[in-house]
Specification:
The complex is a heterodimer of chains A (about 230) and B (about 280). Chain A is mainly alpha-helical and about 230 residues long. Chain A is about 65% helix and about 0% strand. The longest helix of chain A is centred in the first third of the chain and has 32 residues. With about 280 residues, chain B is mostly beta strands. In chain B, strand 18 and strand 19 form a beta hairpin. The radius of gyration of chain B is 19 Å and the shape is globular. Chain B starts with 6 loop residues before the first helix and ends in a 12-residue tail after the last helix. Classes of the chains: A mainly alpha (about 230), B mainly beta (about 280). At the A-B interface, helix 3, helix 4, helix 5 and helix 9 of A face strand 15, strand 16, strand 18 and strand 19 of B.
């Protein structure tokens, strides 16, 4: 595929208007605000930095990379194992529902697109719930995106969505949100490299504070978001 | 440096323990017990409800760099077992050498295991890999408790050197239903970050792999009072509770309170605490 079209497909996949419902989830951030762990632009930046350089680039994005590689190698058993690991690693009921719902929506969307005509959905994932990074890897293959583009787009989608959560729930001003992006984009580029080069036995989703806020969100009194 | 040690020491100490249990009418008994090196079980105790309680002992009292422990437990159909330990597992400064423990638990259909060791203490400089691989079959159920203390803050010792690496996997009928991968180098930013330990030094986890908790029981579990940060969630195939705090005692108090609360549902009877926990 020519580079111009691949870039356009990446912009489309990473767009917040991609109809998979990402805007309705905060991934624990709303709860971190409610519990006073995130209170201002500085603590928000630190929180996002630590999630990015912690479980996101040492686990979730690594499994996304592995899923991209399994698809390239047509290794469906491996793809199934990656999907199981992602689902089994979710730290709260809401996070599990989030990944399954978005994975399902992305699959439904792909099925309706002309790009997927000659690229069937992997048969090992036919009947099981699908974690969103695995669905994302399939989408990237379908849209002709390389692994680095797939991971970059995934992490960008996460960051933009988290900043949107801050704009709505903190609330943070638009310009402050853009300044936060300026601060974190170079970090995001580093995280992409981490995810692509991390040795298998250094996989880590250790983030007990994040797990705690994600669980606490389930009983938070007033909520805008579904996680 | 290690080349000057006697070969027997520089090679580290390997210890292995293999345990098997079977169900008889009204009670569970050990049917297999093999050990290599310094890992033992005390004489088993069958409580009034027929549960076989076993205490795993590691006589050296601490684990040094180069040591390797392996524990392999299997429960036959319907076996009902509780396994604990007499005291904290102390993993010492490895002085550049790593140590490891590998636990495998296999439960046949209808078996029930409570795996509730005392806390794991990682001294600064410990380079430790702890793997737990659990295979459940049919409707086997598992209550797994884990308390890990990073460093010894009471002695002014923080986990600023070494590495804690822990992998836990639970499968049911060959499918992964829960996993946790922790890699935490000493002085990791996650020790101080609110995303990680927020400056606390003790993490605890209680996992129930079995039928989903009724909502009112889950709610009651959320109410359990503790000075730590605690929460719980019902996932599709496991119920998971987590604690972050400052003392192993607080963690055990929280964990045992939860266990007592859950027990009538998970085991159909009140929780019996092994007497060793009272000492």
């Amino acid at each position: 595929m020519n580079g111009g079209l691949a870039l356009l497909q990446l912009l489309r996949l990473a767009s917040p208007s991609l109809p998979i419902g990402a805007y309705s989830y905060s991934q624990g951030l709303e709860s971190a605000l409610d519990l006073g762990l995130v209170t201002d632009a500085t603590s928000a930046r630190q929180w996002l930095h630590d999630v990015l350089h912690g479980p996101l680039s040492h686990f979730e994005a690594v499994l996304l990379v592995q899923a991209c590689r399994a698809l390239v190698g047509a290794d469906e058993a491996r793809l199934d194992a990656i999907n199981q690991r992602l689902l089994a690693s979710r730290d709260s009921r809401e996070l599990r529902q989030e990944t399954e719902q978005m994975g399902y929506s992305l699959r439904q969307l792909l099925a309706a697109l002309p790009e997927s005509q000659n690229q069937p959905w992997p048969s090992t994932l036919a009947d099981a719930p699908v974690a969103v990074p695995v669905a994302w890897a399939v989408a990237a293959r379908t849209l002709g995106l390389a692994e680095d583009a797939a991971v970059t787009g995934y992490l960008w989608g996460w960051l933009e969505n988290q900043v949107m959560v801050l704009l709505k729930a903190m609330p943070m001003g638009q310009t402050a949100g853009q300044r936060l992006l300026s601060a974190l984009l170079p970090e995001l580029a580093v995280a992409v490299q981490t995810a692509r080069t991390l040795p298998e036995d250094e996989l880590s989703n250790f983030a007990p504070g994040l797990a705690w806020v994600a669980m606490k969100h389930e009983t938070q009194y007033s909520r805008l978001f579904r996680s | 440096m290690s080349s000057r040690l006697p070969a027997s020491l520089s090679a580290g100490w390997h210890a292995a323990l293999e345990l098997g249990y079977a169900r008889l009418p009204g009670r569970t008994i050990p049917v297999r017990r093999r050990h290599v090196g310094p890992l033992r079980v005390q004489k088993h105790f069958v409580d009034a409800t027929g549960v076989c309680q076993h205490i795993i002992v590691h006589p050296p009292g601490g684990i040094a760099g180069g040591d390797r422990l392996s524990i392999d437990v299997s429960l036959e159909e319907g076996a009902d077992v509780l396994i604990t330990s007499p005291g904290a597992a102390k993993w010492y400064d490895g002085f550049g050498r790593s140590a490891s423990q590998s636990v495998t638990l296999a439960l046949a259909d209808g078996a029930r295991l409570e795996w509730l060791p005392q806390e794991t203490i990682l001294y600064a400089g410990a380079d430790v890999r702890l793997d737990s691989r659990i295979k459940l079959h049919g409707d086997a159920s598992l209550l797994l408790g884990d308390v890990v203390c990073l460093g010894r803050p009471a002695c002014g010792e923080h986990f600023d050197r070494g590495q804690w690496q822990q992998l836990a996997e639970i499968e049911r009928n060959g499918r992964l239903i829960w996993c946790e991968h922790a890699v935490l180098p000493g002085a990791s930013p996650l020790l101080a970050s609110p995303v990680g330990l927020a400056g606390h030094s003790v993490v605890a986890t209680l996992v129930w792999a079995g039928p989903a908790l009724p909502d009112e029981l889950h709610q009651a579990a959320l109410e359990v009072d503790t000075p730590g940060r605690a929460a719980a969630t019902q996932l599709p195939e496991v119920w998971l509770a987590r604690f972050i705090g400052d003392s192993a005692e607080d963690a055990h108090h929280w964990l045992r309170h939860l266990r007592a609360l859950l027990h009538p549902f998970t085991h159909g009877r009140p929780a019996q605490s092994p007497r060793i926990w009272a000492t």
